[in-house]
Fold:
Amino acid sequence: MALQRICFRSELVPGSWKRIDEPPVAVFDVAGELYAIKDVCTHEYARLSDGEVDGETVVCPWHGACFSLSTGEALSPPAVDPVETFAVVVKDGDVYVDLD
Ligand code: FES
Structure:
């Protein structure tokens, strides 16, 4: 297990996200549920956390591909490949993602 700290749990409220740049990972709070994805679109190199979130879907800010935050699946073109997802661990008030 390779845990990467992202933020304090208290910094995430429903509808918000936090990200780190190295590696590019974003954690989204959707109605209290946390989802972590690699924060790079599989079409080109947009940061997905710069896009709109609609429920459990994030929309790429560059060309509009939609991805599932829970599965990483590419739900609409022009992206075809899924985005990587990570398990989220909340421990002692901190949010981590498991990069393994
Ligand atoms: S970079 Fe995301 S859809 Fe093109």
